[in-house]
């Protein structure tokens, strides 16, 4: 059994396509297909059901995937151990995060990590969805829910607060509500309900059961900009809204609490460049903890 063939198998499993796996590995399509066939021949089993739409693991392929991941983890650990005397930390780390945390908080601070480790390349993917760490869509994911399944390692980064905000111009023109029951008389801004990727993002119903958004925007930063532009009242992250001079809190006694979690796949544990990024995230957030409260 050839280790390169196993790498090909893992890449196809994670991308679902031979062509996508070839691009990820920097190989041509024919080479990837040939190596997959060689692996299936050596194992005496068909690992994928192949079709024009992609490749789906067979029962045998699913069983082999678990063993192949363990082989990969051992190979990564051996590489990290043999390279342990190398002082420079280098490599590419992809961090997936919700846009509020990823763009508003993390992006302005990532330069500090690359200054410390010039050999690092950082990829920030701030999109509002879940990441498949087992498919290597990200090396580190920042999530708002702790994952309950899979070979994942999760640790809480920080608790954060959200509150109601409006622009000063909106309050000047429309007035400020004196209680949550007054919110029904105002223009409200919230998420697009059928695009919520986590129930914990359904903030409005925790403020009032009558929360009906007139403007629905599928990103935290988009909502912040709409509120800042005077479109209405929205539930915003305190650590973002506090830095906006055009915004004012509304009903400041009403606060919501959520948490950010840092999640990695357990096979990434020996990787020094991923560990360096994790350490940076922990230290940076700990230093800024007060701004999230």
Automatic annotation (TrEMBL):
Family, per entry: Belongs to the LysR transcriptional regulatory family.
Presence of keyword Metal-binding: no
SUPFAM superfamilies in the cross-refs: Periplasmic binding protein-like II, Winged helix' DNA-binding domain
Protein name from the UniProt record: LysR family transcriptional regulator
HTH lysR-type domain ranges (all copies): 1-58
Keyword Transcription regulation: yes
Gene Ontology biological process: DNA-templated transcription
A Gene Ontology molecular function term of the record: sequence-specific DNA binding
Coiled-coil annotated spans: none
Phylogenetic lineage: Bacteria, Pseudomonadati, Pseudomonadota, Alphaproteobacteria, Hyphomicrobiales
InterPro entries: LysR-type_TF_proteobact-type, LysR_HTH_N, LysR_subst-bd, WH-like_DNA-bd_sf, WH_DNA-bd_sf
Organism: Roseibium aggregatum
Alphabetical keyword list: DNA-binding, Transcription, Transcription regulation
Pfam families attached to this UniProt entry: HTH_1 (PF00126), LysR_substrate (PF03466)
């Amino acid at each position: 059994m050839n280790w390169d063939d196993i790498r090909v198998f893992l890449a196809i499993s994670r991308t679902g396509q031979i062509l996508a796996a070839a691009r990820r590995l920097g190989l041509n399509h024919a080479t990837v297909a040939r190596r997959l066939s060689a692996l299936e021949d050596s194992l005496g089993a068909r690992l994928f059901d192949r079709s024009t739409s992609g490749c789906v693991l067979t029962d045998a392929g699913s069983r082999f995937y678990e063993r192949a991941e363990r082989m990969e983890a051992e190979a990564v650990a051996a590489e990290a151990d043999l390279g342990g005397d190398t002082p420079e930390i280098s490599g590419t780390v992809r961090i997936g995060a919700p846009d509020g945390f990823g763009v508003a908080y993390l992006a302005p601070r990532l330069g500090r990590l690359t200054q410390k480790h010039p050999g690092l390349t950082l990829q920030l993917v701030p999109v509002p969805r879940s990441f498949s760490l087992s498919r290597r869509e990200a090396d580190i994911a920042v999530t708002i829910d702790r994952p309950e399944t899979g070979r994942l390692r999760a640790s809480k980064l920080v608790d954060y607060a959200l509150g109601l905000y409006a622009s000063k111009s909106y309050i000047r023109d429309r007035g400020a509500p004196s209680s949550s029951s007054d919110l029904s008389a105002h223009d409200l801004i919230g998420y697009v309900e059928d695009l919520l990727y986590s129930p914990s993002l359904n903030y409005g119903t925790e403020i009032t059961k009558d929360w009906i958004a007139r403007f629905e925007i599928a990103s935290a930063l988009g909502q912040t900009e709409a509120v800042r532009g005077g479109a209405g009242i929205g539930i915003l992250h305190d650590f973002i809204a506090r830095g906006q001079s055009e915004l004012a809190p509304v009903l400041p006694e009403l606060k919501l609490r959520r948490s950010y979690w840092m999640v990695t796949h357990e096979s990434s544990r020996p990787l020094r460049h991923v560990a360096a990024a994790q350490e940076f995230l922990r230290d940076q957030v700990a230093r800024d903890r007060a701004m999230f409260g």
